[in-house]
Amino acid sequence: MPMPHRTQAQIIRRRLIGKEGTARLRELQRILGELPDYKNGPYADLRKWVNEEIARTRVRKKTVHRDTIAVRREGAAQICLVGAPNVGKSSLLQALSDVQIKTGDYAFTTTRPVPATTRIGGVLVQLVEIPGLLEGANDDRGGGRALLGVLRGADGIVYCHALDAPVSTFAAIRREVALAGIDRPSLIAATKADEAADRGRAQLDTVADGLDIVAVSVIDDDSLANLRERIWQLTGLIRVHFRHGDELDAHPVALRPPATVADAAHTIHHELGDQCTGGRIWGPSARFAGQHVGRNHLLRDGDQLAVQT
Prior knowledge:
Elements: H1 5-16, H2 21-34, H3 42-59, E1 78-82, H4 89-96, E2 114-120, E3 123-129, H5 144-152, E4 156-162, H6 167-179, E5 186-191, H7 198-205, E6 213-215, H8 221-235, E7 238-244, E8 247-248, E9 253-255, H9 261-268, H10 270-275, E10 278-282, E11 291-294, E12 303-308
Parallel strand pairs: 1-3, 1-4, 4-5, 5-6, 7-12
Antiparallel strand pairs: 2-3, 7-8, 7-9, 10-11, 10-12
Helix pairs in contact: 2-3
């Protein structure tokens, strides 16, 4: 009798951590050979996922190395993953997106910023892993000035800290970012939450300096989903779905608040925004489902809007 499929899925994710290229492909093929050959049910879905991962791994041979420190922005917002070397930034980026990058249990596995895009609530957001910052980054230790320059253009920062690491390393990174005069919406992703004891979280609380701490494990889907939503909150944007009868558009639009019905209509076409008289609203900003509102009605995250002219 095979183990529960959810447990098997967590074990598979753990086996893939730190593997890329040929090593990842071999491990996936071994996993596939070990799975029960069921044609239907959860294990059939698991086999399908493994086969899809094999296909994706074959077409991603290695990380693209860039000749410049500049990172071209993509998506509605750019969020940087920042931390000391070897705190799990690469594994976290991999878990939150489809990018395949080299990971390892040693410092400086990543040597240049690595961008990846992911959809959060349907909106495309760019995540950028910053190579491990060092104390003295403002004096250009470890090429720190260029790396801090990437942070200046970001919309938010996720400080990554492994719960089994000394909190002094996190405090040093915060000091370097503050010395550079960089102030962005931020949170702390406490990585390796499946391995570390509560003592690590308690110690991190003492140096968090008011930042929210989000415990996360790359093999725990619930913790990853929670982190994704907290990352969305860092963007400061709201998501609005357009509604056509009972149908919703495949992806929402991202708007910077305060945003009105007319602002949302402008994202479809300027002419529609000019002609918009209002609309019907479902969601957080509506007093009741399908409420008729004017063009200057303020929208909230999660609203559904049917534009009227």
